[in-house]
Design a protein that fits this description.
five-stranded antiparallel sheet, alpha+beta, 44% helix, 10 helices
Amino acid sequence: MAARYFSPKFFEFFEELQRNNNRDWFLKNKSRYENEVREPMLAFIADFAPRLKKISACYVADPRPSGGSMMRIYRNLRFSRDKTPYKTNAASAFGHRDAGHFEAPSFYLSLSAADGFAGVGIWHPQPEVAQKIRDAIVKRAPTWKKAIDDRKFRARFELGGEKLARPPRGYDPAHPLIEALKRKDFIGATQFTRKELCSDQFLNQFTGACVAAAPFMKFLTEALAYKW
C-alpha cells in the first residue's frame, strides 16, 4: 500500500513559522517540528533510498536525523543580513557518496508553505568545477545536447540559474553551445503542487522526476570525474 508522507500539518507548521520566526515560538513548537516535519521527511528519505540506488548506485539517501540527507532547519547567521534563526522550508539533498555536500551534482527536494520543488544539478560551483563542466560540454557536445533535449527531462524540468554576461575566458564566443558555456549554475527544477505533495503517490512522482533527470545528472557527474 502506498505511503503518504506529507500532510497539511506539515505545511501549516511553516505557515506559522513564517509569522513567528523566533526562538521562543520554535521551542514551544519543537515537538510539532519533530513529529509533523522531521519524522515524515526522514521516513520519505528512508523509502526513497532503495529507489535512488536503482537510478545510480553512487548517490545516497541517508535518513539519519543528523548528518544525513535532511538539511538543518537552523540558519547560518554569520554572514547573513537576515537574522531570523530558522529556515522556512524543509529540504533534503541526495549527493554523491564520494563528494562532500554540494561539491558534486545532487538530487534535491525542498518543501515550504508556498511550494515544493525538486532540483537536480550543481548550484554555484567553484570556478574550477564550472570549468570542468564547460570543458565536458565542449568535448562531449552531442552527449550534453542529448541529455538536455531528452524528451522526459524537458517535459518535467526547466533549466535555470545564473549566467555570465559574456562568454567565459578561454572559450570560443562563436561556439554553438555558448549559452550553455555561459552558465554559472547547471541546474534543473520542477514544481509540485501541495495536492501532489500530500498524495500517497508523491514518492512515485519524485522518483519519476529523478529518473527523468538521470541523463543530465550522469553527464554532470562524469564531467567531474565521479562514477555514475
